[in-house]
Amino acid sequence: MKIERIVLRQLKMPLVHFFETSFSRTYSRDIIIVEVVSEGLSGWGEITAGENPFYNEEWTESAWLIARDYVAPRIVGREFQSASDADGLTHHIRGHNMARGGVEAAIWDLQARRNGNPLWKEIGGGARREIPCGVSIGIQDSVGQLIEKIERELADGYQRIKMKIKPGWDVDVVREIRTKFPAIRLMADANSAYTLADTAHLKQLDEFYLMMIEQPLAHDDIIDHAELQQKLDTAICLDECIRSAHQAEQAIRLKAGRIINIKLGRVGGFSEAIRLHNVCQASGIPVWCGGMLEAGIGRAHNIALATLPNFTLPGDVSASKRYWKRDIILPEVETTSQGTIVIRDELGFGYELDHDFMKQITIRTEAVS
């Protein structure tokens, strides 16, 4: 296939409720949607960078420039034997995995449509017909507010609760939650809010039999995580610091964590995500699919990814209504009463685009051809 044109669209989407992590509070999302065009067919991707360079070094504006000025010119006009070729054509761009990954994911979607396949089948997934779902709940204004949110999510059937933590909102809050909900599958996500100097403090979390503590230390660190994991009974899950299969291999050798979260954008798209998945599977390290407050396209891509066999833990892929009053896909992503999402067999990422709504919320468009 030959990519004839790449179109970037920036959408402005207000969240149903603010989402707070250890580094910021978000009320709305500026999301970049990627369309790749070939012989009358379009494939769709989503660049998952945040509005600010807080999760990693990327943000909406930087991702737009990298995708337009560096990724698209290396893709447009090229003949592809496989969507995986896109990774090699852009791999020499240092960093900027989310910009690269959004374009690469769109090419995989295009290839799936050309081949008459759902995206999950095109990437080699299909190990399950329903994926188990958890939810990520941000830092709230009060513990009471957090409890109300957890009760609501449990009533909707979600199988795992992830709560964000940071210094001043950690041990005591987790204790209250565990006391209120003694049997739920619970984990904590620190988003790099701590250092090794906090080891004794983090050790207190062992008493709450958490599934894992996600990325407690620096966003680019593996070595300190290895030292911390030796001192904790609770499993460490690595997120921000794992951007490639090679880094996963290093972390596994150092025993820096017992679980790895795979995010499509963070690792640069499906090709690297599949390699990372395979490395972890060969080493007996379970993985799960993390979320970046995606709109419907990115959410559908996550669903496809989570059908690979080693995604054995509930991920952060949840219903559209948890984040958006109206999503950009039809139908919107829904969960069953058992806290699962049923895999769809429609072509590509499996949902229709709500083009009229997308036009209403698009604030910028550019094309490279």
Report on this structure.
Helix content is about 35%, strand content about 20%. The protein is built from 13 helices and 15 strands. Strands 5-6-7-8-9-10-11 form a 7-stranded parallel β-sheet. It has a 4-stranded antiparallel β-sheet with strand order 3-2-1-15, sandwiched between helices. It has helices at about 60-75, 85-90, 95-115, 120, 145-155, 170-180, 200-205, 225-230, 245-255, 265, 270-285, 295-305, 355-360; strands at about 5-20, 25-40, 40-45, 130, 135, 160-165, 185-190, 215, 235-240, 260, 285-290, 330, 340, 350-355, 360-369.
Hey, roughly how much beta strand do the residues contain?
15-25%
Number of domains: 2
- Chain-averaged pLDDT: 96
From the coordinates shown, what is the CATH architecture of the largest domain? Alpha-Beta Barrel
What's the total helix number? 13
CATH level-4 homologous superfamily of the largest domain? Enolase-like C-terminal domain
CATH-assigned fold name of the largest domain: TIM Barrel
Spatial arrangement of strands, main beta sheet: 5-6-7-8-9-10-11
Uncertain segments: none
Rg (C-alpha, Å): 20 Å
CATH class of the largest domain: Alpha Beta
Structural class determined from secondary elements: alpha/beta
Query: Considering DSSP H and I runs of 4 or more, what fraction of the residues is helical?
Result: 25-40%
| Largest sheet: number of strands, sense, barrel closure | 7 strands, parallel
Rough shape?
Answer: globular
Total number of strands = 15
N-C termini distance: 15 Å
